[in-house]
Amino acid sequence: MEKQIVFRGGTGQAKMLRESLQDKIKLTAIFEQNKDIKSPFNDVDIYYGDDGFNNWYSKFFVENETYFSVAIGGNCGKDRIVIHHELMSYGLKPFSIIDKSAYIAGNCSLGDGCQILPQSAVCTEVELGIQTIINTGATVDHECKLGNGVHICPGAHLAGLVIVEDCVTIYTGAVILPRIRIGEGAIIGAGAVVIKDVKPYTLVVGNPAKEVKKVK
């Protein structure tokens, strides 16, 4: 039987991920909590809430042949991790989606369920945790270590030897200088230039980046 993949999330991230899938695996279903969201694809059904998932699961789940991707971007790393483990508990398998135009060095370590999107680069000896997104045109230079649920947004750039802890979001166009450590749950604002370590659960913005507030 042909391998199938399902998406959790049916908005813009789902559109990007399907494009990057090419013909590697067949997208067969989307799961959403928000009933106002319609399927972005005419040929793929969308299922709402727990009842929708259970209905799909009873009819279409195939053990060892059903994969998933958490198609949720933004500052939702913790949500991606929770959904990752929940879907695995039902027997679905995480699938890392890598666009054909992305560059990934041969000695990188990629966690399960990563998303490496168009024109991005993951360079030598980089380590990525589970459910980490390297979005369009983003670059992660040599020997960076990224935790679980990290999102490097479009056009953001990490220099070498940067450490990014779990559930950090680095927004569009931000630049992180070498050997910086970004604490868990921190948010780096769009266009920020980070020249020193960032404390956990803080928002930093500007050039040079400065802390403006704590975040949950």
TrEMBL record:
Q: Which residues bind acetyl-CoA?
A: H151
Q: Where on this chain does substrate bind? A: G73
Which SUPFAM superfamilies does this chain map to? Trimeric LpxA-like enzymes
Pfam families linked to this entry: Hexapep (PF00132)
List the active-site residues: H142
Q: Which domain of life is it from?
A: Bacteria
Site (Increases basicity of active site His): give the residues.
Answer: E143
The record's listing under Gene3D superfamilies reads: Hexapeptide repeat proteins (2.160.10.10)
Q: What is the official name of this protein in its record?
A: Transferase
* Organism, as annotated: Clostridium drakei
